[in-house]
From TrEMBL:
It comes from the Bacteria. One of its GO terms (molecular function) is oxidoreductase activity. Keywords: Oxidoreductase. The keyword Oxidoreductase applies. This is Dihydroanticapsin dehydrogenase. Belongs to the short-chain dehydrogenases/reductases (SDR) family. CDD domains: SDR_c. Signal peptide: none annotated. Pfam families: adh_short_C2. Coiled coil: none annotated. InterPro entries: NAD(P)-bd_dom_sf, Sc_DH/Rdtase_CS, SDR_fam.
Length: 236
């Protein structure tokens, strides 16, 4: 399928690692012009701006720099995210750790939308990283799940308010990235008895939603979990 992303002006947050990095590289491979906003250095070939997405003025300045370089925006991908104290029961989780997860995963996406929309081209596309954790959970994931549920909600709300652009989010299950390896350990990923996606596979989902091929899809959460959440409790 030709995605016709050549020459598109693409901004990716969190593009220095994992899924964001895979997205930045995949857009570059399609011939798009790519800018990356991250606390860390983005990949070669992309215009990099260092900023913290939770800081309103830092992010505003970073978006201005990225838009100045790109000459506008066709696609915005919100990948910057943290998992926080995964594995820690809520009752043992300090308030500042809860606040940090919500700040990056929720406020960071809201500020990104706020600062980029004035520059967004007609027919543009937002693709935000939510997670299957918006819909299902395991013990020790309450703040992260709450933050990803919020991304699904803000995706719908933005799709209604932002009339010039489509807004969708992707909701992958476990993806082999530095975040997942830090949370679960290398062995859990390398010897997993559950399916694990690659960051490149998620990037292809993001590129499809960013392209005009998906122009009828708006305000949706695309759950990519190998069908796990489709299983009922019925014993058959
Ligand atoms: N890895 C998974 O299993 C998985 C599954 C579903 C969803 N996700 C989501 O995908 C997104 C990317 O995750 P990943 O696994 O690639 O993680 P990662 O840790 O490999 O990459 C995250 C990137 O975000 C950047 N970042 C974090 N906080 C930031 C901030 N405040 N300001 C600017 N940049 C910041 C980091 O520097 C890093 O480059 C996250 O939103 C995550 O919640 C991950």
């Amino acid at each position: 399928m030709r995605l016709q992303l050549t020459g598109k002006k693409v901004l990716v947050t969190g593009g220095a690692s994992g899924i964001g990095l895979a997205c930045a590289l995949a857009f570059l491979d399609e011939g798009a012009d790519v800018a990356v906003i991250d606390r860390a250095q983005g990949p070669k070939g992309a215009f990099g701006v260092r900023a913290d997405v939770t800081d309103d003025s830092q992010l505003s300045t970073a978006v201005t720099k990225a838009v100045g370089h790109l000459g506008g925006l066709d696609v915005v991908v919100g990948c910057a995210g943290i998992s926080g104290p995964v594995g820690t029961p809520l009752v043992d989780t300090p308030a500042d750790a809860i606040a940090a997860v919500l700040a990056v995963n929720v406020t960071g996406q809201l500020l990104l939308a706020k600062h980029t929309y004035p520059h967004m081209a007609d027919g543009g596309a937002y693709v935000l990283l939510a997670s299957d954790s918006a819909f299902v959970s395991a013990p020790g994931m309450v703040p992260y799940c709450a933050s990803k549920g919020a991304v699904v909600s803000l995706t719908k709300a933005l799709a209604v308010e932002f009339t010039r652009a489509r807004v969708n989010c992707v909701c992958p299950s476990i993806v082999d990235t530095p975040m997942a390896r830090a949370d679960l350990g290398d062995a859990a990923i390398d010897e997993a008895d559950f399916p694990v996606q690659t960051a490149d596979e998620v990037a292809q989902q993001v590129l499809f939603l960013a392209s005009a091929r998906s122009r009828a899809i708006n305000g949706q959460a695309v759950l990519a979990d190998f069908g796990y959440s489709a299983r009922s409790g019925f014993p058959a």
